[in-house]
Design brief:
Elements (H helix, E strand, L loop, with lengths): L14 H11 L3 H10 L7 E6 L5 E5 L9 E5 L5 E6 L12 E3 L3 E7 L5 E7 L3
Antiparallel strand pairs: 1-2, 2-3, 3-4, 5-6, 6-7
Amino acid sequence: MITSLTDARPADTGEADRDELRRLFGERPAVLADQLRALPEKKPIIEKMFVDGAGRLFVIPETSRVEPGTAIDVFRDDGLYVGRLEVPETVTLTYHRGAHATPEYLLFAGADDAGTPYVTRLRMRP
């Protein structure tokens, strides 16, 4: 858990990040050049966040100490830290792949290498 910004060590931006920009904007050289120039040296410490119907906040951290998508920090609706969920398979959230939380499960939409959609269901235990 990150208790203060001094505990967080942002992960470095790497060649894979630049490759992703090249994949997204490769056909638009001017936009690609702007995106590469704007790419920071360090990544944000939070990859994604989402909430459930009970107001719990789920945070996917990305720091030098946590591999992206392998852990989810959970906070109650009053902001109290509940704990960290270790994720058995890497979770990737994008604008096309979302997440949904119920009182018992976290659901993640995804697609395999062939583009076949699937849903991952992770059971939450108190």
